[in-house]
Each structure stands twice: as structure tokens, then as C-alpha cells.
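Hi X.,

You mentioned you wanted examples for the new student's onboarding notes, showing what a folding record looks like when two proteins sit in one file. Here is a clean example. The first protein comes first, with its sequence line followed by its C-alpha cells.
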Amino acid sequence: MNKDRGTMKWTAMMLPEHIQRLRDWEKELAYTAPKEKTEWELEDLQQTIVQAYKQGLMVTFSIFKQGIWSVELGVITTLEIAKQQLLVETETVVKKVDFAMIQSAQVVDGYD
């Protein structure tokens, strides 16, 4: 049976500039910008964050930073309204998160 190496066999005939351009093109296709939040969504997000902070609940954040989506799971330890930041303690580190980067927040139920 013939084993095909896929696109690997074609890359030997391509210039490094072409390969880099194809990789950049794949990144552009995968890029999805966050949608603009309405006033209702912002208020709901604020209520979720304040509730989780006051009660010490575990929260899952969906974060968009510099074109990259990420998900953080942790407990809010500090809420700095003046600086528009909060500190989230994950299992390994404490991270500083700007309010503007947070796209959604959900309280995790039954986390022990």
C-alpha cells in the first residue's frame, strides 16, 4: 500500500517565502474577532464578575488578547475597578486580566 506524505512532498519544491505566506494565510482564515458587546451584555458580565468575587466562586473566562482566544479558569482574588483589572488565581499562577479583554464569564457550578 502506498503511504502518502500529504503536503510534505510538495514543500521541497516551494520557496521559504511561499511556505511562510501559506502559514500566514491559514492564520488569517482561523482569525475571528470578538463581536461588540451590548450594554446588557456588559452589565451581565459585570454582575457575574462581582458575584464571583464576593462569594469566592470559580469562574471560567473567555479572553481575547492580541488576536488570540484563550480560556482561563480560576478564582478572582482582587478586583481593581480604578485600573480596570482583576487578578485571577489559577491552579498554578495568579494572572492579571484587563476588563477589556474579557469576552464572557461563567460561574462554574459544583467545582471542588
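Then the second protein repeats the pattern, sequence line and then C-alpha cells:
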Amino acid sequence: MRTSALTSTLTPLIVALAIGGCQSTPTPSADPGPPPPPPPRELPGSVTAASTGATLMGRITALNTSTREVTVTGSDGSSVEIVAGADIRNFNQLKVGDQVALDYRAAVALELEPAGSAPLGATATQARTVPNRGDIPGGARSNTISLVTEVAAVNPERGTIALRGQSGNTQIIAVERPDLRAKLPNVKRGDLLRISYTQAVALGIRRSP
């Protein structure tokens, strides 16, 4: 409270004046030392800004065991061709006519990082998952592209944020989602904003009646 803060500030001064009035020589007050550092600012964790996905349910209509190419055709006649990488185990279990699901996943994540904690620019990473031996064929491979930009300015009232890229160009972005706008007061100039785009494709077997 303001009253408590004011009282704690004036009390040492009043005591020092009282002591000085009673003694012939003033007694210097003890050096309080430097003020304690402020508590570290907690940055918001990773936030999924957007995500989308699509699943094609269909049957394997073509299968090339030498090139590991698989064609899946849906009930509407649309087809998707993929190459089953080495991370998809039990590939020899697949056969034409199997009912499968081909899943696409894409997401955009945002995460604040401390100033100077990472270089500006883009990086690419890959990840994969594989089923246990003996399980139904399946596997997933994902590619993630991360772009690190610097916060040049932020306006929580207007819901805008200005980002500076590696080349020095600045772009102003309007934050539309209410939950993301609520986080803008925690964003400071100089913070780093990591924008990650992940695209994944997975092939798995679903049993059909």
C-alpha cells in the first residue's frame, strides 16, 4: 500500500533526526546497501496460435515394396501418395486393400524467450516416431521450421506487436485472438519471439468392419 511504503521510507529519517537532536554530534545512519534485485519476469510459455489437421480414411490401392511408395484412395475417389520411410516399421504387413488412415497435422506455436538467448533467423528440425515391433504398421515424421524475431515495439492497447527480423526489417502484426492479446502486457521490447511451424504426416492402420 502507499501508506505503508511512505511510512517505511520516513521512519529512518525521523529516527535519525531525533537522535541528532539529542546528541552533540550526529550519528550517521547505517548504510542500507543496494536495493534487492526485482524478481525475474516470468515469460509466457509456448502457445499454439493455430492448428489444423485432416484425415483421409481409405484403402491402399497401390503398393510398391521396392520404392516403398503407398497410394491411399478415399471414398470420394481422392488419392494421396506417400513414401513410407525407414522409420515406418513392419512395412511388409501392408497390402493392397488394407483400410488405412493418412493423417496430416500442422500447427503454429509462439513462445517468448529472453533477449539475446538465441540468434535471429530460421532453423529447421526433424522428428519421428515409430511403433513397437509387432504392432500394426505406423509411423510419423514431422518437420518444424522455427523463426526467431526480436520484439521492436508492443502496444497492448491497440493489440499490435512489431517484430524485427534478421535482416533488420520490421513488420507490425495485429493480434486478433483475445487470449493472445491478454499476454501482450508481459511482452517487452527486446524479447525474442520464436514462431514455429510444424507439419507432420503419419500413416497408420485402422481396423474396419
